[in-house]
């Protein structure tokens, strides 16, 4: 099994406690740490990245040197942190974990780099959120294993070169497009993490269930996998909630029926939509005739902040083909009407009012 253990990427997910949010809270991190695979052989899914990374690490071990710097991109919960820990384990090296938002000054980065040991793996999550001065310092550190520490201020300032031991930087980002080319080009290996297929998620769930000492039938695992939004972390979280339901309301065995009942209790429907997702779709369909409607208007209709709708609900709805972003506003697709069991309005009916809801 594999998923990241980093702090919530969005404050909205953290505040709302969304069961299908891909970010991990303190409890999630503790459980996930115990369930993480320890090597690439245990890692489920991401076949292309796993095979390529295995070659990179084996070649580095044969040379007796450190591995090239690695950049991992993809949505939260797909296994970037897990892979960084596996890289360190495969190389027999310690790992240092930090994040881009925690490095706001070049001095912060210099302090971390100067304390690294030879061969150590530095995992830098959300690397695109690092400050520009620190980013520029990282260029030289990655390429020449050296940083210039500025002592003093003004005309009397002096740059003191500081040699660094060879190390491996593993950068993780959910928004690879925000990385400047000079930084992206300094990574020797770049891997993009894809969403998981249901069959892969079922393997993740069965492995987790075994480690959690939970008996789950194949159909039960399939039901959970189908509502996990292609994300192992969400699959793991749903499994724990279904386990609770099975323990309290049944005999502890997770069947398809028990899994479906449990996830209905937690407002996770058959396609993985939760309360917020359905609220956005319902408002778009019932209040605005399917759109187009402006994002701000849609957010007011569901009682949420604009950023919450845009960053938390919309990505999954777009990926599922239930909502489209157009220059005129958000538009529901035919699949959205079908999913909510509603009938699209006739031409000249509610849809004729769509122009009123733009902006």
Q: Helical percent range?
A: 40-55%
In CATH, the architecture of the largest domain is 3-Layer(aba) Sandwich
Query: What is the H/E order?
Result: HHHEHEHEHEEEHEHHHHHHHEEH
What gyration radius follows from the Cα positions, in whole Å? Answer: 23 Å
Total domains: 3
Report the CATH topology name of the largest domain: Rossmann fold
What summary fits the major beta sheet?
Answer: 5 strands, parallel
Query: Number of helical segments?
Result: 15
What's the CATH H-level homologous superfamily of the largest domain? P-loop containing nucleotide triphosphate hydrolases
**What fraction of the residues are assigned to beta strands by DSSP?**
5-15%
Q: List the strand order in the largest sheet.
A: 2-3-6-1-7
Mean pLDDT: 82
Low-confidence stretches: 1-16, 348-359
Oligomer: single chain
Name the CATH class of the largest domain: Alpha Beta
Shape: globular
Pfam families: AAA_lid_4, RuvB_N, WHD_RuvB
GO cellular component, one term: Holliday junction resolvase complex
GO biological process, one term: DNA repair
Family: Belongs to the RuvB family.
Structure description:
- InterPro entries: AAA+_ATPase, AAA_lid_4, DNA_helicase_Holl-junc_RuvB, P-loop_NTPase, RuvB-like_N, RuvB_wg_C, WH-like_DNA-bd_sf, WH_DNA-bd_sf.
- This is Holliday junction branch migration complex subunit RuvB.
- With about 350 residues, the protein is an alpha/beta fold.
- The chain folds into three domains: about 35-190, P-loop containing nucleotide triphosphate hydrolases (Rossmann fold, 3-Layer(aba) Sandwich); about 200-265, Helicase, Ruva Protein, domain 3, CATH 1.10.8; about 275-355, Arc Repressor Mutant, subunit A, CATH 1.10.10.
- About 45% of the residues lie in helices and about 10% in strands.
- It is built from 15 helices and nine strands.
- The chain has helices at about 10-15, 25-35, 45-65, 80-90, 105-115, 130-145, 180-185, 200-210, 220-225, 230-250, 255-265, 275-285, 295-300, 305-320, 335-340, and strands at about 70-75, 95-100, 120-125, 145-150, 160-165, 170-175, 190, 325, 330.
- A five-stranded parallel beta sheet has the order 2-3-6-1-7, with helices on one face. A two-stranded antiparallel sheet has the order 4-5.
- α5 (about 105-115) packs parallel to α6 (about 130-145), α8 crosses α10 (about 230-250) and α13 (about 295-300) crosses α14 (about 305-320).
- It is globular.
- Mean pLDDT is about 80; it is low at about 1-15 and about 350-359.
